[in-house]
Specification:
This protein has 172 residues and is α+β, with helices and mostly antiparallel strands. The protein has helices at residues 3-29, 63-87, 93-116, 138-164; strands at residues 35-39, 43-50, 119-126, 132-136. It has one domain (3-157). It is built from 4 helices and 4 strands.
Amino acid sequence: MTPRLKFFLAAVAFGLPLDLLSKEWVVRTLTYSDRIEVIEGFFYLTHVRNPGAAFGMLASTPAVFRLTFFIGVTLIAIGLIFSFLRKLAPGDRFAALSLGLILSGAVGNLLDRIRYGEVVDFLHFILPGGYIWPDFNFADSLIVVGVIFLVLELFAVEGETRDEVPVVESDS
């Protein structure tokens, strides 16, 4: 097994159960709209549902369209993740880890949409100044962290590529 595949599978083995088990705990423990204070005035565990995408986008569209759209987009994203994974060099651990995190989040939210018709969110933060960040879950966090890692990887590779390009000085 290549290092790339090991890191990818490790990310999925960590991320997907974390997301699924945490959502299962929320559904079994908290009644819809319940809130448990973890850090006073800052962090709460809640039980809310998001029928839309990030920040509730498309939440008011008809359920059949919304579900079909999100499942279709997620399946395309999963296909792209595996396509990118296959194209990575065997030793490209960081990008493989990133793709595994993104896949974990995508599958976690996909399973919610299939089971409930919407996504279970439960992480609730009140930021300084009283701004309430929209509730989210570990799947959302895994996707964001995976994308950030991929961007960092792209910048690192771009920097390495530029370092390898010889500088041509002119005599003028």
